[in-house]
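Worked problem 6 (solution included).
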Amino acid sequence: MGREAERSHELYELGLAYIRTAIRASLAEVDAEMAAAGILHPSWSRRFPPPDTVAVSVMPARAPVVTVEFTGRELQECWRGVESAEACRKVRSFALEYQRLLAESGRSLRRQPEAAAPRHSL
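Solution. The predicted structure is:
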C-alpha cells in the first residue's frame, strides 16, 4: 500500500474514533446508561480504499438501534476532532433521536426482540 493510501486510512480511522467519542459525549447528555451503548460500524480491509460511506449505529440495551451515515469525506475531515457543522449535526442527531424516543415513551424505552426491533435511520 502506498503512502497516500496509508494516510487516507489513518485519517479515516482517526475521524471515526473522534466521531465515536463525540457520540458517547452527546448520548451522556441524554442518559448516562446510553453513553455506554455499543457503537457499531463496518470494518474494512486496509488492502482496499476506505468506503465512500459508513453507517454508524448506536445499540443501547434499552432502546431501538439508531443509524446515521457518515461520508468518507466527513470521516477524514474529523481527523483532529468533530468540527464541521454537518458532522456535528449528525453526531447530535443520535442524542436528539433518543431524547425524542424517551419523551414519547415516558422514559420507559426497552429494546424489543431483534425480529420486532425497529431500526431508526436518520
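Discussion: Residues 3-121 form one domain.
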